[in-house]
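Worked example

This section walks through a single chain of length 406. The input is the sequence exactly as stored; nothing has been trimmed or padded.
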Amino acid sequence: MSVWDDVVGQEAVISTLSGAAEAARGLAEQREARASGGAEDPPSATGPGSAMTHAWLITGPPGSGRSNAALAFAAALQCAGDVPGCGQCKPCRDVMSGAHPDVVRLATEKLIITLDEVKELIGEAQRRPWTGRWRVILVEDADRMAERTTNVLLKSIEEPPPQTVWLLCTPSADDVLPTIRSRCRLITLRIPPAGAVADLLVRRDGADPALAARAARASQSHIGLARHLATDPDAWERRRRLLRAPVSLRSVGDAVLAAADLVESAESEAQARTAERDAAERADLMRALGLEGEGRVPPALRAQIRALEEDQKRRAKRARTDVLDRAMIDLLSFYRDVLAAQMGSDVERVNIDLAEQIERAAASTGPEQSLARIAAIEECRGRLRSNAAPLLAVEALMIQLRPQAR
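Given that input, the structure is written out below as tokens.
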């Protein structure tokens, strides 16, 4: 078992990052040898001609495993085994479990990464490693930084301390400013094969092989969604109900009711996902403030309670948006299959369990209508990522998805 086991279908990426970790080990050993002799650190050997560099931009479509790849690379950099990334030594285990003191990981659950969070990361990047050979700063969803926030980060990425490595994860290289992009080495992950995703679900999560194969196909090789489908007993039924809804709509009233049902379901799922954590965070804060029980909160401490509640509201909004976006991706897969049937394409269908509904929708409309519905879903996704009211955005979409809509 190695740290690369969960980076599925990315052989070229693993090869590149493994080579970089091996080069990083050599650089660290040179630095340690010179330090033991009383000399200063050698000049950085992380330029264009080296396998290792101080800043990496790891990109890939949603579900490709870019965060897994970044975390595995961080573990390989800290590895004390014979081969970097062994997965067996204590540094590898600590990094993969989130317990290594020299790997700082920012994975926001809010809509944006704030300026204060980035300033804190910059401070972390200036510290020397505590126990490892490198100070690794891993930023997931780096595309969620505003331009002003990214500009604050630029100097630290351009000239980091010699033992600091930045790992930025985004869906696309275009999601960060050109000034950041030009200072990072680009690593691009591909969509993994469905078979590789299914094998991972069986090996890591103990999923039934047949269910894992269906989940990998239905999620279009999105690792996180595939795991959700393979491990949540109710996930398939919710998905089937969602994809059957548009073809059964007969009026604007039906569309409005379907939209309300979808948004309500998303809010319930998001609340279930965050409620336990919210309660634990509030209990921890109250205990830290010495406010055990349900007593009255002194005015001087109310600001801290309000700050926590605001953070939790932002996290709940992100969770709801993510659930709705997942629903939009499922709808896109349905109309992709409808369009493939209309065009007589022999590409593999995503929704093999909905063949009857797909054929019926394909026979009752033309390719132009399917393309219009796909465009409407993408427009709804854009609205959901903005400040549009979710219910209004989904209502507008469902009205356009009615079979009689043209």
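What to look for: DSSP finds 15 helices and five strands in the chain.
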